[in-house]
């Protein structure tokens, strides 16, 4: 939802008369498509969750039988219907995101079995795809290449955010053959990689904004990145114990930087430099 909003902001298009489309797009990005991905993941991860989080609805039996699968399938169809009503740009993006949501969790591909592939798919769907969609819908055209570049950079950084999510499930992942990055690299190695992958794309965003003569926005992103650096030092001292804490604090600064970059991309009187 946040990334879609950043796409709307970065487009520079006026919201007057287009509030319903923007609001519907945000609902589609979050409570529909993103929720579908979570429902699909909950169903196909029910055996892993039985080890890591046995109190969740499916492994605990509060959602019995195959109802978890029915919810995932029904929410997929509902998402497609809403997306189709909003036009071809949103339908195409929603379809792409939903396909990735299913192949991320479901066999035979089940991209999440390898942290490199799975985290890349989720990072693209959570940041770049909704950003692109928000900008494309408001502009009714392919977004400016600079918007695409910034959306891609924040998608790459989200790969690190997804690594943070994997620390809590290391035991279940090992037991069920899921090669998340904390399993492959160990806690310390995965933590260092997550920080690096989150940090370097933001450095590139700062450099790009400076090149496009947006120094104040570049300074805001740099300041937020510096704040993340301070938090990263604490996180790296105890990766498993502080992964959830850093996901709440460091990721907050990360997404605020996304919004600062989105405002920088709004076309001004003479367009982007």
TrEMBL record:
<feature type="transmembrane region" description="Helical">
    <location>
        <begin position="72"/>
        <end position="104"/>
    </location>
</feature>
<dbReference type="InterPro" id="IPR050475">
    <property type="entry name" value="Prenyltransferase_related"/>
</dbReference>
<keyword id="KW-1003">Cell membrane</keyword>
<protein>
    <submittedName>
        <fullName>1,4-dihydroxy-2-naphthoate octaprenyltransferase</fullName>
    </submittedName>
</protein>
<feature type="transmembrane region" description="Helical">
    <location>
        <begin position="188"/>
        <end position="210"/>
    </location>
</feature>
<keyword id="KW-0149">Chlorophyll biosynthesis</keyword>
<dbReference type="InterPro" id="IPR044878">
    <property type="entry name" value="UbiA_sf"/>
</dbReference>
<feature type="transmembrane region" description="Helical">
    <location>
        <begin position="244"/>
        <end position="265"/>
    </location>
</feature>
<keyword id="KW-1133">Transmembrane helix</keyword>
<keyword id="KW-0812">Transmembrane</keyword>
<feature type="transmembrane region" description="Helical">
    <location>
        <begin position="147"/>
        <end position="167"/>
    </location>
</feature>
<feature type="transmembrane region" description="Helical">
    <location>
        <begin position="116"/>
        <end position="141"/>
    </location>
</feature>
<dbReference type="InterPro" id="IPR006372">
    <property type="entry name" value="Chl_synth"/>
</dbReference>
<dbReference type="InterPro" id="IPR000537">
    <property type="entry name" value="UbiA_prenyltransferase"/>
</dbReference>
<dbReference type="Pfam" id="PF01040">
    <property type="entry name" value="UbiA"/>
</dbReference>
<keyword id="KW-0472">Membrane</keyword>
């Amino acid at each position: 939802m946040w990334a879609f909003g950043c796409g709307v902001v970065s487009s520079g298009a006026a919201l007057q008369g287009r509030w319903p489309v923007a609001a519907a797009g945000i609902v589609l990005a979050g409570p529909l498509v993103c929720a579908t991905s979570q429902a699909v993941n909950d169903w196909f991860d029910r055996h892993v969750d039985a080890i890591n989080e046995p109190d969740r609805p499916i492994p605990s039996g509060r959602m019995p039988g195959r109802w978890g699968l029915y919810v995932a399938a029904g929410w997929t169809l509902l998402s497609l219907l809403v997306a189709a009503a909003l036009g071809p740009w949103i339908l195409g993006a929603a379809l792409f995101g939903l396909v990735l949501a299913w192949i991320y969790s479901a066999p035979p591909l089940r991209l999440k079995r390898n942290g490199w592939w799975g985290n890349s798919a989720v990072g693209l769907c959570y940041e770049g795809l909704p950003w692109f969609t928000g900008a494309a819908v408001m502009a009714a055209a392919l977004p400016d290449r600079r918007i695409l570049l910034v959306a891609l950079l924040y998608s790459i950084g989200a790969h690190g955010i997804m690594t943070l999510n994997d620390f809590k499930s290391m035991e279940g992942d090992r037991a069920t053959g899921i090669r998340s990055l904390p399993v492959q690299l160990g806690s310390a190695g995965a933590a260092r990689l997550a920080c690096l992958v989150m940090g370097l794309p933001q450095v590139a965003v700062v450099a790009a904004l400076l090149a496009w003569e947006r120094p104040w926005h570049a300074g805001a992103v740099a300041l937020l990145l510096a704040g993340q650096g301070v938090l990263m030092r604490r996180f790296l001292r105890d990766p498993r114990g502080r992964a959830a804490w850093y996901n709440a604090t460091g990721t907050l600064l990360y997404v605020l930087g996304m919004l600062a970059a989105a405002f920088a991309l709004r076309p001004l009187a003479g367009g982007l430099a």
